Amino acid sequence: MTTTLAPPAKPWSPAEFEARLRAVGQDRYHDRHPFNLRMHQGDLTPDEVRCWITNRFHYQRHIPVKDALILAKLDSSRLRRMWLRRIEDHDGRDEGEGGIERWLRLGEAAGLDRRTLLSGESVLPGVRLAVEGYVNFCRLRSPLEAVAASLTELTAPDLMRLRIEAFERHYPWIAADGLGYFRTRVDQGRRDSAEALHLVLRWARSREEQESAVAALSFKCEVLWALLDAVQQHAVRQRTVPQRAGHDGPRERV
Predict the structure, then answer these.
(1) Which of 60, 130, 185, 243 has the fewest CB atoms within 10 Å, i.e. is most exposed?
(2) What's the sign of the alpha-carbon dihedral 176, 178, 183, 184?
(3) What does pTM read for this prediction?
(4) For residues 171 and 42, is the Cβ–Cβ distance under 8 A?
């Protein structure tokens, strides 16, 4: 008795493949997470905003780390130069420049101490696990999958514009110059996502490769959701923990 193997599935057309990638962002990007919705509606307390800034910084400071891992996988000088710019965007070419510095300034504008942010001592365990999972994904997976995971940038520019408007409207206690990271990432995200999308569409030739790219992008969305899940669960715990008798001051910041 012989077994007839089914022929491999035909690759999606470039247009359908791109549509499937974009659909992941539209359906699963963290702009729909309840914590983000509360943020943009102005419902967060100052301590909740600070908690988010602190834990999101742990993700931000690892962006150039994961990009360095991707850079090491690229096989041409042209591609490495292109990806190197992403590291410079976050680390800066000189001290006091770059996206990480701008995030530190956001923290300071919100009343957080720079040294505390850099120490990472207040980062939640769930956030550490999510970020470590993403960095290891970029370390261990193929260049196609690692680059495809970055395609959350397709949706990020719209989120940045929404976030700027929300912070200006609902959180005026944060100085306007602290929003520099969000303003810069509107154009950077648009440029970076176009470059990464071009690579993914070109590299994924087979249906299996295309599906692995879609799965990689889905995984990245799950990382971002897991980060916010941890922050939201912490916020719920802080609201339900009773104050100590005779203590009327604010709860401890995280």
Answers:
(1) 243
(2) positive
(3) 0.90
(4) yes
CB neighbourhood size of 160 (10 A): 21
Of 66, 35, 61, 64, the C-alpha closest to 163 is 35
Measure the CA dihedral 121/127/130/131, to 10°: -40
> Would you tell me how many other CB atoms lie within 10 Å of the CB of residue 49?
20
Contacts of 86 (CB under 8 A, 6+ apart): 63, 64, 67, 192
Residues 6 or more apart in contact with residue 142 via CB below 8 angstroms: 73, 212
90 and 62 Cβ atoms separated by less than 8 Å: no
**Interatomic CA distance for residues 222 and 198, integer angstroms:** 23
Mean pLDDT of the region 191-199? 97
- Contact 154/193 with Cβ under 8 angstroms? yes
pLDDT at 253: 42
pLDDT reported for residue 240: 82
The helix or strand, by DSSP H or E, that contains position 227, with its residue range, turns out to be helix 207-240
CA nearest neighbour of 141 among 204, 80, 216: 216
Tell me the per-residue pLDDT of 68-105, one tens digit each, with 9 for 90 and over: 999 999 999 999 999 999 999 999 999 989 999 999 99
152/173 Cα distance (integer angstroms): 29
Q: Which residue reads 């995984």 in tokens?
A: 219
Are residues 227 and 131 in contact, defined by beta-carbon separation less than 8 angstroms?
yes
User: What confidence tens digit (pLDDT) does each residue in 20-39 have?
Assistant: 999 999 999 999 999 999 99
101-119: b or e for each residue (b if 16 or more CB lie within 10 Å)?
bbbbbbbbbbebeeeebee
Per residue in 111-140, pLDDT (tens digit) is: 999 999 999 999 999 999 999 999 999 999
